[in-house]
Amino acid sequence: MRHRSLFIVTTAVTVGALTLSACGSRDDSSEGGSGGGGKTTVVIGLDAPLTGDLSALGQGIKNSADLAVKTANKNNEVEGVTFKLEALDDVAQAATGQQNATKLVGDDEVMGVVGPLNSDVGQSMQKVFANDNLVQVSPANTNPELTQGKDWQSGKKVRGFDTYFRTSTTDAIQGPYAAQYMFNDKKLKKVYVIDDKKTYGAGLAATFSTEFKKLGGKVVGTDHINPDDKDFSSVASKVAQTDAEFVYYGGEYPAGAPLASQIKNAGAKIPTVGGDALFSAEYIKLGKKNSEGDFASSVGAPLETLETAKKFIADYSAGGYDGAFEAYGGYAYDSTWAIIQAVKAVVEKNDGKLPGDVKDSRKQITEAMQDVKFEGVTGSVGFDEFGDTLNKQLSLYEVKGGKHVPVKTGVFEG
Amino acid sequence: MNDLPQQLANGLLLGALYGLIAIGYTMVYGIVQLINFAHGEIFMIGGFGALTAFLWLPDGTSLLVALPLMILMAMACSVLVAVGAERFAYRPLRNAPRLAPLITAIGLSIALQQAVWAFYPDATKSRPFPEFEGGRLDFGAFAISRGDLFLLIAAPLCMITLGFFVSKTRTGRAMQATSQDPDTAKLMGINTDRIIVTAFAIGAAFAAIAAVAHGLKYGEVNFKMGFIAGLKAFTAAVLGGIGNIYGAMIGGLVLGLSEAMATAYIENIPGMSQLGGGAWKDVWAFVLLILVLLLRPQGLLGARVSDRA
């Protein structure tokens, strides 16, 4: 009896797994070989959290990349090439991101990848792409390690992967920028630093603390939280016990919003300050009235103020997309556009078409990326020797009247 | 240590929430010896039920007016799912080896989670839950938020009602009898199938109240919230002695308190600064569980089970 039911379960699981994987391979073959009409199809892969807690940001990235692809096709940006977007969902998990990367590398039509959102996901994908020379442009990874290697803080900067580029600035300047603003402009000298121990959050909190202490500020306490948690009441009570004048949180909004809210509920009427992963309308939705007065830094200048972004904003709303473009929409558009420009450069070099060989095409596109330069939605787009963006603008936003309102924009000078 | 009263209040509130969910685990285990891993999802569905009820009401409805409806809706959703699960997923396996319903429970938990994720509009991210207006309530040594008030009232009320039900009513005594020996209970004329359904329904109703409390406390519901909450509630049930309804509440409170204490004070112990704080609280909670199980395998209030295993 026992043996039989165990056998049935095993069979069911095996059959299920086989069916699922069969579905996957069917998908692949039906998508392949669709370059009809004398035009080459170039697929731009995309990886972002399209579902889950961070899906607001992920969908914004996907929609904006889609807009870039559509614009390129409409304008016939690259003669003889039709672009297609293939979006994969990484659920903000590094392991899933790595699987997606493997899948994209395996698809011969993919010539570049936009994404991902999370730094730890980016870290898991880098090597997979580097092995096949497939270029990756992230609109949102901000951890410095991704481009400059483990020892970037001690000044020993080493670029790990030639295939990795990003259009967002790094936490190496995002944390310090917020530190300078809070210390110099807001005259707040005491901070409680909390992070979620993830690649992004811990890195951000560290760069913030270093700069804040250098300026003469005092870190009155530190703590770490588990981002899957919802109960931060004990940590919040600890913060309320200190004389901290604000909280710096290194982490993302799904935990950041309830944390900031619970800190205020615990009696500490002090603002929470964080990085670009708190810069989302969802942060305000979850924190409700308690989010009022909180700060978030974000990469670049507010899109609304940029001349270059006017067309993007208009096109996006005309595109009828579900949801806003969110914090990284402009960067996702620029990342996608950078890939399109790199493809264009290679096509122009090779007498109007891509080199027939997949490996060769990918290699040339990656090399072309280094020299890509254009005026994008977020300002001038171009990359330095590490693959980092040349655009080092940053902004700080304060929640006022249920919206993130820009309070300062500038270039970090450390 | 001057924030001790506050941390105790935090821990007790968190613990009461765990305890409310744990009752469902414990009752079902007590009667059919099934660890219902889908119970966390039944809790989660209660949260979405309450949110749905609130969204149905016209904008600007006071939460005090909406709350009874939200509780009813939460209970209706949770009980419906739990009873349905019992009828269609667990009852056909009643006489199967113990492993089969356990695997079914895990499968059901994933299925329920994915169903909410896929079919509830916008449930792919956390959904904001209505909150009480106004700040916190100050009791001098400690303060709680207005949302916690619901939990503070609901948890003891639920326990008293349940205690009364189990010891004083016919169905309650039939429940005790079934949990002691289902075969003999059947011979004595107790409809054991009905008793089992009742146990599932009561557990689900408590989980639904916990879900409303969770929403009011944290201001959001999430399709994934059942997993961690379920795991903690299961731990609470085991800690208190699985099968014992008072044990579930005690286990919940002990677990909540130990998490709060670990977050607040472990790092003050010399040499332990690396092992304290919010990120480590789960570790200490499970260390406690292991210690209790080593020293008292039947749990804090559990009786030694000798005749049935």
TrEMBL record, chain A:
Family matches, as InterPro entries: Leu-bd (IPR028081), Peripla_BP_I (IPR028082)
This protein's UniProt keywords: Signal
Pfam families listed in its UniProt record: Peripla_BP_6
CDD domains listed in its UniProt record: PBP1_ABC_LIVBP-like
Domain Leucine-binding protein intervals: 41-403
PROSITE patterns registered for this protein in UniProt: PROKAR_LIPOPROTEIN
Record PANTHER family: AMINO ACID BINDING PROTEIN, LEU/ILE/VAL-BINDING ABC TRANSPORTER SUBUNIT
Family listed: Belongs to the leucine-binding protein family.
Protein's name in the database: Branched chain amino acid ABC transporter substrate-binding protein
From TrEMBL, chain B:
Subcellular location: Cell membrane
Its membrane topology: Multi-pass membrane protein
CDD domains (alphabetical): TM_PBP1_LivH_like (cd06582)
InterPro entries (alphabetical): ABC_transp_permease (IPR001851), BCAA_transport_permease (IPR052157)
Molecular function terms from GO: L-isoleucine transmembrane transporter activity; L-leucine transmembrane transporter activity; L-phenylalanine transmembrane transporter activity; L-valine transmembrane transporter activity
Recorded superkingdom: Bacteria
Signal peptide (UniProt feature, chain positions): none
Record bears the keyword Transmembrane: yes
Zinc-finger is among the record's keywords: no
BP GO terms, sorted: D-alanine transmembrane transport; L-alanine transport; L-isoleucine import across plasma membrane
Recorded GO CC terms: plasma membrane
Membrane spanning stretches: 12-32, 39-57, 63-85, 97-120, 149-166, 195-213, 233-257
Keywords, sorted A to Z: Amino-acid transport, Cell inner membrane, Cell membrane, Membrane, Transmembrane, Transmembrane helix, Transport
Family per similarity comment: Belongs to the binding-protein-dependent transport system permease family. LivHM subfamily.
Name of the protein: Branched-chain amino acid ABC transporter permease
